[in-house]
Amino acid sequence: MVFREFAGIAAGNLWRLKLRTSLTALGVMIGIAALVTMLSFAAGVQRNVAERFRALGLFHTLHVMPPILGEGADPAGADSLRSGTADSLQGGTADSLRSGTADSLRSGTADSLQSRTDDAPPDATVHSPRGASPEAVRLDDAMLARLAEMEGVSSVHPQDSFDAQLIWGAESLTVSAQSLPAAFVRSRDLGRLVAGDYFDSDEARLAVLRPRTVERLGADPDSILGQTVRLRIASRGEMLHLLFERILARLELPPEAAAAARRIAGALLSHRRRSEIALRVCGVAELEGGWGFRMGDLLVPGGVVAGIDRISFRDPFEMISQLTVPGGGEHALAIVTFSEEADPTALQDAIEALGLRTFSFIEQFEEMRRGFLVFDLMVSVIGLIALLVASLGIVNTMVMSITERTREIGILKSLGAEGRQIRLLFLIESGMIGLVGSLVGLLVGWGLSRIGSLILRQIMAAEGAPRIDLFHLHPLVAVGAVAFGLLLSLLAGVHPAARAARIDPVRALRHE
Amino acid sequence: MAEELLRAAGLRRIYQLGGREIRALDGVDLRLERGEYLRIVGPSGSGKSTLLNLLAGLDRPSDGTIAFSSAGLLSEMSPAALAAYRAREVGVVFQSFNLITHRTALQNVELGLLFLGVPREERLRRARAMLDRLALGARCDHRPGDLSGGEQQRVALARALVKEPALLLADEPTGNLDREISGEIAGLLRELNRRGLTIVLVTHDIALARGDVDRTVHMDYGRIVSEERPESHGAPGRRT
Ligand SMILES: Nc1ncnc2c1ncn2[C@@H]1O[C@H](COP(=O)(O)OP(=O)(O)OP(=O)(O)O)[C@@H](O)[C@H]1O
Ligand SMILES: [Mg+2]
User: Fold this and answer.
1) How many angstroms away from the CA of A28 is the closest CA of chain B?
2) ipTM of the predicted structure?
3) What are phi and psi of B107, to 5 degrees?
4) Of A309, A308, A333, A312, nearest to A321 (Cα)?
5) Checking DSSP bridges between strand A275-285 and strand A228-233, what pairing results, if any?
6) From CA A72, how far away is CA A137, in angstroms rounded?
7) Are the beta carbons of B95 and A419 separated by less than 8 Å?
8) In this structure, are strands B215-220 and B37-41 parallel, antiparallel, or unpaired?
9) Number of A–B residue contacts, CB under 8 Å
10) In this structure, which residue's CA is closest to atom 2 in ligand 1?
11) Is the pTM of this model over 0.90?
12) How far is A455 from B38, CA to CA, in rounded Å?
């Protein structure tokens, strides 16, 4: 009862000094708003990541890749090979690609390209002639079958990316294409369909394009649906051929020698011709990749490009690695999904024991989570500092208020107030400042996160990214922030309120 | 035989001021009967206010006891019990009216019932009635700043009386008022006493309420030096 009466008196007092109250509450408001906005952002991003992971089934997914060029069972050999390759890359390939000097090519790329030995001694490995390599670990269909039989594995899907030219009518684009098994496409949320549908068969000559790709072709999703496009796939042979032609041009050999070299090269590389396939556009979808899963501009069923010599690279290192992989039958990546009960770590270890490389999304997610935790902590510290400053403001306001109201306190005591009731009154006042500040801060923080979300959406939409909400205000965070603001303001009020409670009524009431 | 309301015995109040001892009260014995109108006069610094504050439960004596009929020994009370005593038994008015300036007359008077746990509706009703009785019914919603000194003191009186205390303590209630208004306040006190209220009036003004009181006590140097009872007055216990 007294509490309610006091709340009324306290509210009246605060209302009477609106400016002072609001300025004091403003401090709390800013702290809470900052805390709420930043925590919403952290939570929003985190939630989106988790949702994306879930949608893509990444919590039950392992990406399996063939070993890096030259990497094998012997770590010493692998090391030296890696350094050899890297050296040749720095001293050789990169330069040779730019300047085209034969020397640098021979001393670097050519040799290292041929070396894929695993067990040879370090020195010999780098310079060993082709053909000396023993059985290499390959991510071919046999290996996929082997993976599929492992305990806990529920599916194995090859996934290949390759660069190609997309031709439609007179338009031609360089695209990064991707092949995925139909079953895999159907089991995941790979992105919102704008038109048509995904494919259901691995053999059908169909393609799903991204809206952006369609746009680049100068078409719109509905008109291109059902149309036939052609995909010209870059092959290793073509790549080597081009490389060879460039080098030949730089060598300035006598015409006869050049012609002879060209003949030999032509014979050697004759089986590696560029390939072109016709595909019917069956769907247009916002293919969403991310989180270690790069989605191309174009998606085709797994069987369509099977056996076609193709290449994809993002850097020279990758190109070299790809050039040396014998064409056909081998996959750059296999997506292994496992059952709920399977132990991801054990499975990962077992697959790595086969000599393959793996990429775990759980690890990735955990790492991100740790990053978010650090971010949350930093945000909280910033918010905490703001709130501490705000608390000092409350202390100041309360001390000032008590000094001004000494006589009032004396009057209340003469009318029968106890010290603890006076304390309660002032605690309610400081608590109210904190509560109002926190509530308004929560509202402002929420508003800011909405505005931020709107702006980010706009930006992301302009970039063609999916429209996701990057802010998420968890109810617990909202309640926690307000409770925290209230608690801090109560703590700030403890000392001033105790001072008020101790005021001697005789002194307070004595005429001025 | 008159009923005793309050008895103070051997009251001392000693202040330590810069290592010096100030004996504001130096052994006061006082007996107050129910319905009595007691006047305390004395020169400035004689300890009148100090005594009144002890009787009001606003301060505690350094030595001695105060027994209040229904509440017991004030000196042995817990802070909470002493606060309850202030809330229930005594009403106090001061020279400076000690009204809360940002509250209206009604809100000031209503505060007199807050610590008795009276519900708000009843507090407002009783406060309004009390202001009416003191001819301030029309000034309920005025703040102290908008009232004259006499009106302010009447509001303070209303606040002290709204709980219907057993004892009214008034410390120089007319100290800030001119002669005419002082007379008005004195008349009001006389009227209240006639209706049975026990009053202790502290005043500088030898003339104030001289004819109204049952007894006048003279103080000096923290002691009661003499006591007089006007001939015209009989024993106070005769009235209610
Ligand atoms: N808090 C205090 N600390 C020190 N001395 C005090 C204190 N309060 C009162 N005194 C001293 O005690 C003495 C009595 O003071 P008190 O106020 O009771 O006198 P009074 O009779 O009411 O005087 P006046 O008529 O001027 O109001 C004075 O000498 C005063 O200075
Ligand atoms: Mg005095």
Assistant:
1) 27
2) 0.93
3) -65, -35
4) A312
5) antiparallel
6) 8
7) no
8) parallel
9) 64
10) B15
11) no
12) 79
